[in-house]
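Entry 14. Two folds queued back to back today. First construct below, sequence then structure tokens.
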Amino acid sequence: MNYLTEPTKDLRRKSLHEELTQTLRDLIIHGTLPPGVKIPEKDLCDAYSVSRTPLREALKVLASEGLVVLEPNRGARVSQITQEDLDEVFPVMGALEALAGELACRNITDQEIAEIQALHQQMLGHYRDLDLDSYFTANQKIHEALLAAARNQTLTTHYRSLSARVQRARYVANMTPARWAQAVDEHEEIIKHLLARNGERLAATLRRHLENKLKTVSHHLGRKADFRPAG
């Protein structure tokens, strides 16, 4: 074995696989591939100049995240968004976000707080511009930064295994002006408690933030839902 070239090949293959997985994940989260649609494998292979092998590897990852359903001898479909799924996922995410907030307040650096504040200002700018897509992007970066500041790899792994399902539900729901304003107010609270390094209050705000998000998505699906945080 040539030890100088073989690992490079593996790394390139891994990079392609990860990049393709994220691309497909984004297509599903943003609704370009909507719930219930059959995954057009040939079209995707042609569009991204890849073979079926890395595509199917990516679909297996997305199936493990609950975004795709693999159908034997029939290919794959984007999973449906159901109330039952939301009632399972959102309370768990609420608990994980709360824990991330508590740990972040213990471990975060001043530099990290400054970076989150800068992201928050960007998010507010997108809110004023009514740029929902850019708002969501900055919003997600804030939550990811809090997660990183928690310094807990086990928490990160579980969070990311569910995060895409929450993001997709958020994108499909109609964001009313009232809910958007409420979400911004909640993020103002998040920054306030983070600056004070008050883990208990930050955790409570993050739970409530997910609770209100669930209510918005549930209303979009046709009914209101009770939010029962895990733990």
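Second construct, same run, same settings:
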Amino acid sequence: MTAQQQLGAGPVTGTGATLEVDALTKRYGGTVALDGVSFDVRPGEIFGFVGSNGAGKTTTMRIALGVLAADSGQVRLGGRPVDLDVRRTIGYMPEERGLYPKMKVGEQLTYLAELHGVDRAAARRAVLRWAEQLGVDHRLGDTVDALSLGNQQRVQLAAALVHDPAVLVLDEPFSGLDPVAVDVMSEVLREKARAGVPVLFSSHQLDLVQRLCDRVGILVAGRMRTVGTVGEVRRGGGTRLEVHAPAAAPGWAQGLPGVTVLTHDRGRTVLALGDGADDQRVLAAALATGPVRGFTVTTPSLTDLYREVVA
């Protein structure tokens, strides 16, 4: 049974509802998959859900979709617990392919829309619209297994959109896409957000998360380590100094108050500044090694911060 099959048929609700994930816990024997995970995705917001493999992202999404039961906690959409009727209003894109490989693309998308309660004429219009927007309208007569992996990914997204969902939940939607396809898919997510739809997606492409998302949550070993706007999360990582001192030895900044050496590579050093750090003292120490070609205060990227949080 595919993920779409599990959703069943039913009415479609409008946008404007908040997706709330409230204190989810889940165990598999002695393994804690989720430990009190909480966050929300607001109407018109794109929320990036990041974490290493096995952190619990897919488990959280499956519970949100209602196809996996939590040991405790709850997921609500617009204040209503996720039941069968609510599940029918969710657009879900699984990381693994959930389509019938031998069924023609157009027929399959129409069928999936009808499963969600869309009448046939409206379903066909929705299929054409999203196929055109995602660049697969010329492949509607082909079977799914005749498509490239990238085009299968586009069709999978179309399957999540054809019933005009109240919320989008996407597991690694950008995996395997070329830069043009990433741009196309990004614009689709922005369009849905502009229409008031909460959009939740997981991704390992943190530069894309940083560029696309309003807020982000970092999940580590089943616990939500940090949640906030991309700017808040980055600023929470503290101040960085990038120093280019070509003659400096690797340990030149060791022992400076409030300073942690993050990286040093051929005279280029990245430092984290904590309490008690004095950038002028750092500059003096760098100049003591010889000429300083660069001295820049920066905010850590989401990728840099993620590495530190996960480590």
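Quick look at the second one. Confidence is low (pLDDT under 50) at residues 1-14. Residues 3-234 form a domain with the Rossmann fold fold (CATH 3.40.50.300).
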